[in-house]
Write a structure and sequence with these properties.
This protein is an alpha+beta fold. It has twelve helices and 20 strands. Strands 3, 4, 12, 13, 14, 15, 16 and 17 form an eight-stranded mixed sheet that branches. A three-stranded antiparallel sheet has the order 7-8-9. The protein has a three-stranded antiparallel sheet with strand order 11-18-20, covered by helices on one side. Helix 1 packs parallel to helix 4, helix 1 packs parallel to helix 8 and helix 2 crosses helix 8.
Length: 456
């Protein structure tokens, strides 16, 4: 259910184990890299984090080379970016990780071409899933209906040995499970009310060019406004600004620029004042963290959830595409494990585990934001102790190379949280004060012995 990244990659894995995989997609799929209605965040910034890159290359060998050949920018962190967090500018030290910042439409188009080349996989385009077949013990297929615009169109059954929900954050699987007498998931939620707006620009003053590929100011409880500019494959930049409930960024084109004044430094606003807008501004409001616990006892066999249908993250942290790929790897590895029978529950537990680090990061950060609401707000005493340590990590990451390397590895989902407690990191966090950092946006990457300049 769903032909976006999570659905395509799950189909790719399952095609190695079954006779036929049918992807049911409500959209008519485009012929090239174009946004589509079924990806509501498609016009907003997307990044492929390091953990997602490793997973994607494992699933589709050679994919990263294809991505580079298509022009997707590969941005070094922190050397290529001007970054601000917790009141400090990051030193532009040599990159310890890279992200890809091209458009979502481009990346999805490349994945779609690779996956759908497999004759085992077929797509029902322009088709809605409207319910499940089966009973409380097992899901046995879905009811589908053509999206012809005829409200009286009849549904038809599509039987299946396994149904995978990759329909995204708007999934209706809990209701459909209830309709066949099956148990739905427990849901954990954390919602800060964060909203954002995005618009494409082409720079004219060269500030975000050459050695500086992009800019980002991250939100925190003291500075709730965030924003930045990330490079796209055509040389333009996709700009985003965000705020919390009651102070949402406008989608009016002129007010979009004015809203950037809320960021902790005028750099982005000055750049926008001179840059050429290439698109309207688009807003997005659904940013709650939602985790659906299908891994608990009592759920029917024959049904799995993956991607945003399983675990939705606040998009501001850029984790969704990486988790989709990492979940597909977990699906592949669990099905290939000859030591254990891949029961529905065991596979669902593996899928949830693949998203756990991203959840801990996104939910952990949002839990501390003012005005956050939801069922998972209280992290308990352990969360308070971890929060004290992680605040010290964040204070040191902008200036300390050792702490910064570990911090970026965890945030890009390429190392577990335990990397932040490795002895060299723990010594710096517990016993050393924060290292000095630039007082203004650093204009260029640091070179040995160079004091570095600033962007005025």
């Amino acid at each position: 259910m769903g032909g976006s990244l999570a659905g395509l990659l799950a189909a790719h894995v399952l095609a190695g184990h079954v006779d036929r995989v049918t992807v049911v997609e409500r959209d008519r799929l485009p012929d090239g890299p174009e946004p589509r209605p079924g990806v509501p965040q498609g016009r907003h910034p997307h990044v492929l984090l390091q953990g997602g890159q490793v997973a994607m290359e494992s699933l589709l060998p050679g994919f990263l080379a294809e991505l580079r050949e298509a022009g997707a920018p590969r941005v070094g962190m922190p050397s290529d970016m001007v970054m601000w967090q917790t009141g400090r500018w990051f030193r532009r030290l040599p990159a310890t990780t890279h992200i890809y910042t091209g458009s979502r439409a481009q990346l999805e188009d490349l994945v779609r071409r690779r996956v759908l080349a497999n004759p085992v996989i077929s797509v029902l385009e322009g088709t809605d899933v409207v319910g499940f077949l089966g009973d409380a013990s097992r899901v046995r297929g879905v009811l589908v209906r053509d999206r012809s615009g005829d409200a009286r169109a009849e549904s038809r059954p599509l039987e299946a040995d396994l149904v995978v929900d990759a329909s995204g954050s708007g999934t209706k699987a809990p209701q459909w499970l209830a309709a066949i007498g099956a148990e739905g998931p427990q849901e954990e939620t954390i919602d800060t009310g964060l909203a954002y707006a995005s618009r494409v620009y082409r720079g004219t003053n060269g500030v975000l060019d050459g050695e500086t590929r992009g800019y980002y100011a991250y939100p925190d409880p003291e500075q709730v406004h965030a924003g930045g500019a990330l490079p796209l494959e055509d040389g333009s930049h996709l700009v985003i600004v965000s705020g919390l409930r009651g102070d949402e960024p406008p989608t009016d084109d002129d007010e979009f620029v004015t809203y950037a004044k809320r960021l902790p430094h005028p750099l982005l606003h000055r750049w926008l004042d001179e840059a050429e807008p290439l698109s309207p501004s688009f807003g997005f409001r659904r940013t709650a963290n939602i985790r659906r616990r299908y891994d608990l006892p009592g759920h029917p066999a024959g049904f799995l959830a993956t991607g945003d249908a399983l675990c939705t993250f606040n998009p501001i942290y850029g984790q969704g595409m990486a988790v989709a790929a990492m979940s597909a790897v977990a699906l592949r590895d669990t099905l290939a494990d000859r030591r254990r029978t891949p029961t529905t529950r065991r596979v669902q537990q593996a899928l949830l585990a693949a998203s756990r680090l991203a959840w801990d990061i996104s939910a952990g950060a949002d839990r501390k934001m003012p005005g956050a609401i939801g069922t998972a707000i209280d992290g308990g005493p352990a969360d308070q102790v971890a929060g004290w340590y992680l605040r010290r990590v964040q204070e040191r990451a902008p200036g300390d190379p050792v702490v910064g390397r570990a911090f970026r590895a965890v945030l890009t989902l390429s190392a577990p949280v335990t990397a932040l407690f490795a002895p060299p990191v723990a010594r710096a966090v517990l016993f050393r004060p924060p290292s000095p950092t630039p007082t203004e946006p650093p204009a260029a990457p640091e070179e040995p012995g160079s004091p570095g300049g600033v962007i005025s």
